């Protein structure tokens, strides 16, 4: 690998064989030297989970013959992949970490459930400029073609400008043809939530069990949100921080009778 | 259950049989009608993971004979427990959700890995005043006695005052005798990170594997942080938000060449 080209770590949460990570690798190979360290199986909904009571396996694999990049398949979560990449596999701290392209939205409150974004956040806590990319199409046959120019533009600008301290990017791309996408919007996270609906069934031996399902409810009318941008044909970019302190709440709490 | 007493949901991430949740249930029984819905096995480090590709079991259990509260043991993550409690088990939205008492710290950046805090955050997204409690003692034999009066005071104030919209509390308690604890401090999350050290070993059939371990590095000298408070004998209370937007970064990103 060249010493002059940027070193780029690629990971995801849909697993190393997902079409989304293949599209991301293809774009990143045009920008720098690429190292892929990704879960060996799908890890959707894993949030910022880490493996602390089990062993981790991490193996060099060869998905594509004569590829310019290297790949490792890891038994852990997306966050585990970033940790093991940075500490055991990469010879130096990468210049960029990209995660995705996720099959499905990570906009709004979905950011807190997202393994894709947690991988980006983990790299961010280690001082690495990081971006999570998601396409609003859950299908394994999703067309990642229209995403590529936006992924490239945002990654290039991140490599050029860096990111503010303590900030990573949450990028969501609408499921549209290239000609239908209106551009890129910097947004805030919409104030939305999930209303759960559990599907209760009975197993063959008579024991009740549940499937988690639910409905996404957007309570936010703002035109500066990621939900608005995506509904209106824009790629949404939300700067995400991992200092979770609600500074605005501190005065109120200081007035409580706790002293 | 009475209609006048507050309805309190109790969960955790160390599992329904952990001593920490027993201490929390004991305190909550003095404040309201208690429903426990907690994981059937330890879920530490699960972050905001949810179970989307597997079934969930949730069974009424009787841990203590003639207890005033009810308990359900759930096969999922802490976040699953909150979702199933609110949507399938409780007859109305609870007045308070408490999670813990965790065996070990969830201060500073640990908040993003914490199943204890993710359960509280999940309840928060559903509009329920919520608190995660953690004691800085990983031992299963930890003494939760000194924690109880602080847990009770903070829960009482939360029931009385409510919490600002979009905010939950992250409470950490130092491992000290009751007489050594100086009081409660409202804090910001310290700017700290983990430096990983993987322990590489070889299994009996010759395959390499890793154990994740690491060192907590606090880069923050501030005396207004949770880390400072805990080191100086205070119970730390950090208001935590789940709007992760880094508003301060939006101007800078708007200056990028993306349009």
UniProtKB/TrEMBL annotation, chains A, B:
NCBIfam families: PRK00346.1-4 (NF001490), PRK00346.2-2 (NF001492), surE (TIGR00087). Residues 8-196 form the Survival protein SurE-like phosphatase/nucleotidase domain. Pfam families: SurE. Its cofactor is Mg(2+); a divalent metal cation. GO terms for molecular function: 5'-nucleotidase activity; metal ion binding; nucleotide binding. This is 5'-nucleotidase SurE. GO terms for cellular component: cytoplasm. Its EC number is 3.1.3.5. The gene is surE. It catalyses: a ribonucleoside 5'-phosphate + H2O = a ribonucleoside + phosphate. Nucleotidase that shows phosphatase activity on nucleoside 5'-monophosphates. It is found in: Cytoplasm. It comes from the Bacteria.
């Amino acid at each position: 690998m060249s010493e002059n080209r940027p070193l780029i770590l690629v990971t995801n949460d849909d697993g190393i064989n997902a079409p989304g990570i293949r599209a991301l690798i293809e774009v990143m190979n045009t920008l720098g030297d690429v190292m892929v360290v990704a879960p060996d199986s799908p890890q959707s909904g894993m949030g910022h989970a880490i493996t602390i009571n089990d062993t981790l396996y991490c193996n060099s694999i060869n998905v594509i013959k004569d590829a310019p990049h290297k790949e490792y398949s890891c038994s852990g979560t997306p966050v585990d992949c970033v940790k093991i990449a940075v500490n055991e596999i990469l010879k130096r701290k990468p210049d960029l970490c990209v995660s995705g392209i996720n099959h499905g939205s990570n906009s709004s409150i979905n950011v807190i459930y997202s393994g894709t974004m947690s991988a980006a956040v983990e790299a961010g806590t280690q001082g690495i400029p990081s971006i999570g990319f998601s396409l609003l199409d859950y299908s394994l046959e999703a067309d990642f073609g229209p995403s590529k120019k936006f992924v490239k533009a945002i990654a290039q600008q991140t490599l050029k400008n860096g990111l503010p301290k303590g900030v990573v990017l949450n990028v969501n791309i609408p499921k549209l043809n290239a000609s239908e996408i209106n551009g890129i919007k910097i947004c805030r996270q919409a104030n939305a939530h999930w209303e759960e609906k559990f599907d209760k069934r009975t197993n063959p031996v008579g024991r009740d069990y549940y499937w988690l399902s639910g409905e996404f409810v957007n309570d936010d009318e703002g035109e500066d949100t990621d939900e608005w941008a995506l509904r209106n044909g824009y790629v949404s970019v939300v700067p995400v921080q991992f200092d979770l302190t609600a500074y605005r709440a501190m005065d109120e709490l200081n007035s409580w009778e706790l002293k």
